[in-house]
Design a protein that fits this description.
By secondary structure, the protein is an all-alpha fold. The protein is built from one helix and no strands. InterPro entries: Med22. It is found in: Nucleus. Its main location: nucleus.
Length: 110
């Protein structure tokens, strides 16, 4: 009878040890899972910060290029606009000299 009680106590200790090991494994799994999520959150934040920094750099470059393009367009407009205005004025003055008839008034729309 004593052997049966001792054997039962040993079995209970083994079962208790297995339960403790199972709990420990479960806690380790939870720690690893939560740790992975923490790492994932850090990686996501770092990626978002990098993308935001890169976007700011690209915005600055785009603004610089837009300013340079606007300056070039104003320069071209000054150069070409002057040439076009001279050509338009000379063709208008020639046309005015050739056409001595008074211009008729335009009919009003209905």
């Amino acid at each position: 009878m004593f052997a049966g009680v001792a054997m039962r106590a040993i079995v209970m200790e083994v079962v208790s040890a297995c339960e403790n090991i199972t709990r420990l494994v479960s806690e380790i799994k939870q720690l690893l899972i939560l740790g992975d999520f923490c790492w994932l959150e850090k990686a996501t934040k770092a990626g978002a910060e990098e993308r935001e920094r890169r976007r700011a750099e690209l915005d600055a470059v785009a603004i610089k290029l837009a300013d340079e393009l606007a300056a070039d367009l104003f320069t071209l407009d000054d150069k070409l606009g002057t040439m076009v205005n001279h050509a338009a004025l000379s063709s208008t003055s020639n046309a005015a000299d050739d056409d001595m008839t008074p211009s008729e008034p335009k009919p009003e729309p209905f």
